[in-house]
Automatic annotation (TrEMBL):
Superkingdom to which the source organism belongs: Eukaryota
BP terms from Gene Ontology: cellular response to starvation; endosomal vesicle fusion; macroautophagy; protein targeting to vacuole
Compositionally biased residues, Acidic residues: 14-26
Organism per entry: Pogonophryne albipinna
Function description: Plays a role in vesicle-mediated protein trafficking to lysosomal compartments including the endocytic membrane transport pathways.
Span list, region Disordered: 1-31
CHCR repeats: 568-712
GO cellular component entries: clathrin-coated vesicle; cytosol; early endosome membrane; Golgi apparatus; HOPS complex; late endosome membrane; lysosomal membrane
GO MF terms held by the record: zinc ion binding
Name of the protein in question: Vacuolar protein sorting-associated protein 41 homolog
Compartments in which it is found: Cytoplasm, Cytosol; Early endosome membrane; Endosome membrane; Late endosome membrane
Amino acid sequence: MLPSGWSGRKQSEEFTDESEEEDSEEEPKLKYERLSNGVTEILQKDAASCMTVHDKFLALGTHFGKVFLLDIQGNVTQKFEISSVKINQISLDESGEHVGICSEDGKVQVFGLYTREGFHENFDCPIKVVALHPQFTRSNYKQFVTGGNKLLLYERNWLNRWKMSVLHEGEGSITNIQWRANLIAWANNVGVKIYDIGTKQRITNVLRDNVSLRPDMYPCSLCWKNNSTLIVGWGTSIKICVVKERNATEMRDLPSRYVEIVSAFETEFFISGLAPLADQLVTLYFVKENSDEMDEEFRARPRLDIIQPLPETCEDISSDALTVRNFQENECRDYRLEHSEGESLFYIISPKDIVVAKERDQDDHIDWLLEKKKYEEALMAAEISFKNIKRHDVQKIGMAYINHLVEKGDYDSAARKCQKVLGKNMDLWENEVYRFKTIGQLKAISQYLPRGDLRLRPAIYEMILHEFLKTDYEGFATLIQEWPGELYNNMAIVQTVSDHLKRDPTNRTLLTTLAELYTYDQRYDRALEIYLRLRHKDVYQLIHKHNLFSSIEDKIVLLMDFDKEKAVDMLLDNEDKLSTDRVVEELADRPELLHVYLHKLFKRDHHKGQKYHERQIGLYAEYDRPNLLPFLRDSTHCPLEKALEICQQRNFVEETVFLLSRMGNCRRALQMIMEELEDVDKAIEFAKEQDDAELWEDLISYSIDKPPFITGLLNNIGTHVDPILLIHRIKEGMEIPNLRDSLVKILHDYNLQILLREGCKKILVADSLSLLQKMHRTQMRGVRVDEENICESCHAAILPSDMAKPFSVVVFHCRHMFHKECLPSSGSIPGVQFCNICSAKKRRPGHGILEIKQ
């Protein structure tokens, strides 16, 4: 059998045997089909001996001396009776217009398929090969070579006659010739040689490796990969030869070209044919029956392998065993491998069968993936190459994948693939939904249903919602949140949920879902009622979004109980919809909540709730004493007497001290600090804030018999009161803690003050000098006087129209200008003049800086 993945236009019953590649997980590289139609009939009566491939047609030679021209489907288009014995070789030029044929009885014919011209010759020995010049159609390339016991070159001269010359002889029968551009390669019993027809030089001789093999039984295979690379296969050896230009300095008497063998390696089987495939090789192997590695049935099948040549070995890419007709009777010489360069087609020729191998396309790749149940990869391949595939449809592959997943029981994956595969086909979607319902897997497909511009009938969505409502309240709630309300009949679902709540009235999930349904149905009051009952976090969002402030006037306490911070922020942000007075009225019976509201209102604006400031004093005293003192400090509308009364009742000393000081009773305030708080630092701080000498005197008098207080005063009053006054009043013999440190600190502070004063004095003197110099430079500058300036007294032009006449002008530093005669007499200081304008404005007078006389 041909390997797995083989496909053809006509498959024979002989291709039904199993092959070991069937079970392989590796995808075949080639696909195969038997060349049928006219070929089948020919090979039933005759046997193929050779074939040549052109991009447009095929030329088949038989053992009975006939040559058939075939189309690529195998249909006979032309037939030639050449001989009565075996056709050894058929050669075509590149254009496909001329053919060369040789046979076992020594006949050689070269003729045009569309012209009468030709060459006919009978030799006295079998002619094994013939090769036309690739450009034979052109008049200056009318050349061909034949190979029997000699290699003969025929050329048509200018007299239109054929001239024959011997290129090589004496090394046995020539079995293969390949002509490419100017290079002719041929094989005889000794090895392979290359001849340059342009320079008329023989380039190289590649010797045969295994001389024990009969050349007629294991003929050499030659193939040109390009104009300079020749592939040689003989026995089990493959060599890749590259023709290169010789360096001019190395030539002497040597040919202008030489051959380098870039790769040489051994194969497992005997080579029957070679063909290039990009940078790889396609090799046709003959497998001998006496091989010990495989069972007897398989050994005789020819193998078509793809290998990657390396310098000294090769890497197997793929290997296919081919079951051709009568393969048990064939020898190595009975197989040939021909290829079409244009389409990468490979023809395996045997006496009774011709098989065509071609590279697998994307459709074949997808076929193989589907056969191996690799649906994910098949779908991906189809999506990537959707423009190139011909036999497959992306959606059908996707449906096959979904069916496969359902059969496996992987319902979630199957449902997820529906989204990708079904796309916008709503009919297919509905069919899949009902199929999932049949197998009890509606939940699996629910999250993948279309819900955008394209959507299914409402009944489909309602069916799924009812299914969830029966078994999974959480899943039902999730769908209600995720699905737009217009997908289904909202009222019908509301009724169904209400029916379920009758059986389970406290179910939070159902209540929350019902509130969402009411919201979508614009019955916000019903939704708000449920949210407040559940203390649901979305209640504030619902109020904001749908402007439900009129509905919460009597529910403010409920909102505050749920979340004070959010409720207060919402109420304050919407004072235009819920007035402060209304909120205070609602919270009157809940003073702790009222305090939270009024406190935040005060923090936002100290003046907005001023009429409630008196009420807030008691609220702060009761619920939030830490914020009472800041409130008293910041409020300008708080009644001080009321505040003082409350603070004294509750014995709030700090607040009482603040209120006393604010009411002007600083001495009483200081007394409370010293007597009740006994905090000298706070007393000193208070005295510093008031900056009153009498308070300092009271503080010193109170502290003079208390050593800790004296220490505090000594450490802190140095910058406000002369420490000497305190030190003189200390009783002799009194033990004062840390007295030495306090005195050192006083001296240090005094020294620091002296240093600061001296530093300031230096800076002041330097600045004064700098400013004086700047003023002097400024006053020494000249002042521009022109015809546009006027006298500030007479308002006439300061300069006379006739500059030749004598005139006198006075210009002050303040830039006021006067005629000499218009300037009033000098003042009390003789010789010093002042600007009348600046003196009148009670500014410092400007001094006359310039007197212009002419």
